[in-house]
Amino acid sequence: MSDTPNKIPQTEPHQSATFDKLTNSQIRRAAATGIYDIRGGGAKRKLPHFDDLLFLGASMSRYPLEGYREKCGTDVVLGTRFAKKPIHLKTPVTIAGMSFGALSAPAKEALGRGASAVGTSTTTGDGGMTPEERGQSKTLVYQYLPSRYGMNPDDLRKADAIELVVGQGAKPGGGGMLLGQKISARVAKMRCLPEGIDQRSACRHPDWTGPDDLEIKIAEIREITDWEKPIYVKIGATRPYFDVALAVKAGADVIVLDGMQGGTAATQEVFIEHVGIPILAAIRPAVQSLQDLGMHRKVQLIVSGGIRNGADVAKALALGADAVAIGTAALIALGDNDPELEAEYNKLGTTAGAYDDWHEGRDPAGITTQDPELMKRLDPVKAGHRLANYLTVMTMEAQVIARACGKSHLHNLEPEDLVALTIEASAMAKVPLAGTNWIPGESKF
Amino acid sequence: MESLKYDLAKIPLREVNQFLHSDASLLNGKHIEINNPNGAHNIAVGLKSEAIVTIHGHAGYYAAGMNQIADVTIEGSVGSGVAENMMSGRVHVKGFASNAAGATANGGLLVIDGDAGLRCGISLKGADIVVGGSVGSFSAFMAQAGNMVILGDAGEGLGDSIYEARLFVRGKVISLGADCEVKTMSLEDRKILVDLLERSGHGDVSPESFTLYGSARTLYHFNVAKSGAY
User: Which of B61, B99, B104 is closest, CB to CB, to A151?
Assistant: First the structure.
């Protein structure tokens, strides 16, 4: 300790938790530009998630299955309620809807190739169906969106299932955006828009306004397709109990429930981070709704929003989902945000892993772009192979966990196999806090 | 012309629509009459042949939805979404149409002799719509391409956030939506108008009595100065 009277000990510089560096940079950006921040991806903030759950595994009271010997089924059938031709998938991990426009044609082709290689489905997006995508996708789900960009009855008939999109987790209540940089001649033609404009997709369907109308709309699509195709209804996670009940009432074969971690091609940062709820909080109310209607497993539930590995898959299924969908994770498997491109991300003012200005169309990985030179960087065959590998690993990981819990099929996983690490996760997933019998809101501590 | 009659009071709609989806070689040029529609929804949807269909009475939602090639006449009024997402062909409503008539239609001609409700021609993508009467509020919202001819009046917010569609209105417009303005009618515009009037049975109406509305194109790019209009 110094005896110098003039030197007063200083505290460490104390950054505010409220006004942290990110927040301050957001304020400065807003002050400089006068317009909100637009980006791609899903919620980036720390949220209660599947990491907050653990499987108990088998021990004295449960009997495990041999890891490399005994069968553990992974297949799923979607659309058993009304469709004449339900979809049979070999893995419950599907590819979420992402548009041609938001993604390059080679990226869409790669998604189709990867999904088809492992026997799962891929999904179109807000921009119609491309021949590349249809050609490479053994099972293709065709989205029916408020904008109806590229919607036509010929493609409707070519689809294996139809997903009527009411909302998505990144922006429940909001429409899409595709800024001028990505409205190339081909994208503009498919969407019937002037080239190069900043396109705003509708947030509401143009010809129905509520669940009673939706019932008639679903019936129309069934009539057009002669009742062959499964019809999904996709909702952003907000009020899952009631939304699921209304979707069932409207005649859905399958419900797709997307949490706030689910990505978007572009919308306002404030929308992504502050509207909607995490998928962990949405699954149990959705399943409860199906159970209360006697429709659990009759109307299938696909959940999405932050699914990253086989553990997430197993946890989602244990909570009652029939399948999951991945979007952001699939893009990473294709090559998005790869550290090998760090120098190029730096030039864009960001770093690998954080790049989210997908709307600007300058993606060095050639995935979220319509730039002819950039998109050449993605080899759809190799990228499709990477995606297939990743999907295989996720499926095998989920099997590892299911076998350890003594389940001969992923769908035999159940909430009783799970505990929670946090009180929040316990309350949301309605499984006990680890080491206790306590579920907040359900039982006394 | 060979005529086939279906009575919806006796035969399920599913059976009728399934027949209407038969191979085009079986349907081309045939006249199919549908009796006793009684406001049923989804009549004659998803047609893809040169069939001529007449619905004798009122139809419900989405009559002739997603029509391709076929010629469908409704001898009555229709519910919401008549000829929604039509690709080609012709749909003629002899009575009135409810909301969202011709929504998102890509091609073909929709003729409504009476009035149309709210949001007529919403997100229009290239089809032509002729309304003999008036249209309700928010018609041609986000209309991208195609032409609307309105012989009567238009409600509030006509052509809000319109892209490249043309709106020909003969009567009063209560108000225009964001980015919709009066345009000078070019010779090409006039030719389109005259053609549509003739094809919809209004060939005796003077094209000079119409005003053309279209996009001011000020909202095509995000612009801080225009934030109040978004």
Answer: B104
